[in-house]
Amino acid sequence: MTEGSDTAAKNNPGSYVTGGQEFVRDTKYIDTRITADGRDGYPVEAGRYRLVAARACPWANRTLIVRRLLGLEDAISLGLCGPTHDADSWTFDLDPGGVDPVLGIPRIKDAYEKRIPGYPKGITVPAIVDIPSGAVVTNDFPQITIDFELEWTAFHRDGAPQLYPEHLRDEIDEVNRGVYTEVNNGVYRCGFAGSQDAYEKAYARLFTKLDELSARLSTRRYLVGDTITEADVRLFTTLARFDAVYHGHFKTNRSKLSEMPVLWAYARDLFQTPGFGDTTDFVQIKQHYYIVHTDVNPTGIVPVGPDLTNWLTPHHREELGGRPFGDGTPPPPPRPDEVVPAQNWVPTA
Asked: What is the CATH architecture of 3-155?
């Protein structure tokens, strides 16, 4: 994170909490799709599109995991925004001069404006940009990963896993609905609650679902079937942020993840699987939440803890069976320019 991005976040902060109200997420995204047949005007084409993400964001982290598991790095380039942003836009402050080297812009908002001048909604990541036009194609994050899995198959690596197999899609969709409403978005309904009542209701719903998921995962290694699927990707990115951010910052403090034995072992199993932990940047995660959400954390102080070394401890989930990648294989190591800095990861010594 650069000093400039920190200053911008403090000088022009966004507003996330509405007094007296529960948090309601705006889920109306740009739903144009990139498909094999190009029916929306954007056909699958290697090198044409750039995924703009931020390691801090759980919704964007999903796309980083799926892109890596499927081996789409050569087909879809990656632009990474810094961990903090102001009320206006996510910015490319990690790049030299604060400008994305491919798109030539300092803010992802510029690509939104290219697509929809005067874009009236929030500037979000992940977003996929059409490089020739410089315009955002879509920011519909739930659909982006599904389309990576189903529409980009011509560019999947050899040994790519089936993350959304046809015979399990109905069950995956059902699990995902509950995980999204109660967990992925549930932590935000706690953290951005504008009243005690709204917070307590969100808190109860969150931990009710986490207890249900613990029961489900007590006898099975993965959420659906015996391999990693889209469902596991979606739950993981929230669990990875739970102790580092949500337990304190969002007041989801009945239990730490590390105090929920089944979910903690499940999360460590995934974290230690190529594609999951190696896309997780704990420093950026903490900087994002504690600096950006000034109406939740007015001081902007980023906590030093928690201890992260326990993410690498044995999980013993392999005793439940299952094959992480099914008939496929693990992805190769991350590209050198996409490796999470060692100092932002889990201390190994």
From this structure: 3-Layer(aba) Sandwich (3.40)
